[in-house]
UniProtKB/TrEMBL annotation:
Gene3D superfamilies: 3.30.1490.300, 3.30.420.40. InterPro entries: ATPase_NBD (IPR043129). This is Pilus assembly protein HofM. It comes from the Bacteria.
Length: 269
């Protein structure tokens, strides 16, 4: 008999709340195993989207005590705090460590800042020297890691929150765009693209669609906040990515979209 798969947990940290969702892959598909929500107090400086450390550590400690042994956790970092770059590797062969070091140096050079202030990850294109690089401020990554260290909660991966929309986009089809309305931003994931846009940077939904270059019939909205469109469009049902759900369920699944998407993501070996 094969051992049961590990629980995969997505954690979405916002200024006013921390939400977590756990799933487990079974023979018939994904099963929802649990969901949690903790309110956060509002004491953070205006330049950060993260709540007070004590609130986060306390919530993560409670989460850890609710999970079985052998869980995996992925936490989101705001996509607006990351930067996507396209780089070309040298023609000469390099080891993986040399490649990682080279990418870090080139990314830092383009941003005109020390590599020590950045964290980065990359995906290489098959049969090509082109790589897609995502960078994030090292201090923000360290802060997320410190939350989990202090709460004695094992962290497996840190991912831009917009990538949590990938499982929903895969469910809807290759041409689909999944757009999530958060408190201050639009998060989006489409064909070969993902990112975030501040509300103030676009003129409503028409301005957002124009910026993304996508057609309304390919859009699937989701999230905790209503989006009014003309004509009115149906919202994406997050439960469609799961094969087994059972009560008790959240009264409103919208606020848990990012946490659920993070839980369904790929994890390091």
């Amino acid at each position: 008999m094969r051992p049961a798969a590990q629980w995969q947990v997505g954690v979405d940290i916002q200024r006013d709340s921390l939400r977590a969702v756990a799933v487990q892959h079974r023979r018939y598909g994904w099963q929802l195993r649990g969901w949690w929500e903790w309110p956060m107090s509002h004491h953070s400086p205006a330049d950060t989207q993260l709540p007070p450390q004590a609130d986060v550590v306390s919530a993560l400690g409670e989460l850890r005590r609710s999970l079985p042994a052998g869980y995996r956790i992925r936490v989101g970092i705001p996509a607006g705090r990351t930067l996507q770059q396209q780089l070309v590797l040298p023609a000469m062969a390099m080891t993986e460590s040399d490649t990682c070091r080279y990418i870090g140096q080139m990314a830092a050079q383009q941003l005109d800042m020390p590599a020590s202030q950045l964290c980065w990850d990359y995906v290489a294109s098959a049969g090509s020297k082109h790589v897609s690089v995502v960078t994030a401020p090292a201090d923000e990554v360290a802060r997320l890691q410190e939350y989990f260290t202090q709460s004695q909660c094992h962290l497996s991966a840190i991912t831009p929150d917009a990538l949590a929309l990938a499982p929903y986009q895969a469910q809807e089809g290759d041409n689909a765009w999944v757009i999530y309305r958060s408190q201050q931003d639009w998060l989006w994931y489409g064909p070969q693209q993902w990112g975030s846009t501040r509300f103030s940077d676009v003129a409503g939904v028409p301005g957002l669609l124009a910026r993304l270059g996508c057609e309304a019939e390919h859009i699937h909205f989701c999230g905790p906040h209503e989006v009014r469109t003309e004509p009115s469009q149906e919202w994406l049902d997050p439960y469609h990515v799961l094969h087994l759900v059972a009560p008790p369920l959240p009264e409103n699944i919208g606020p848990f979209v990012i946490a659920l998407g993070l839980a369904l993501g790929r994890y390091p070996a």
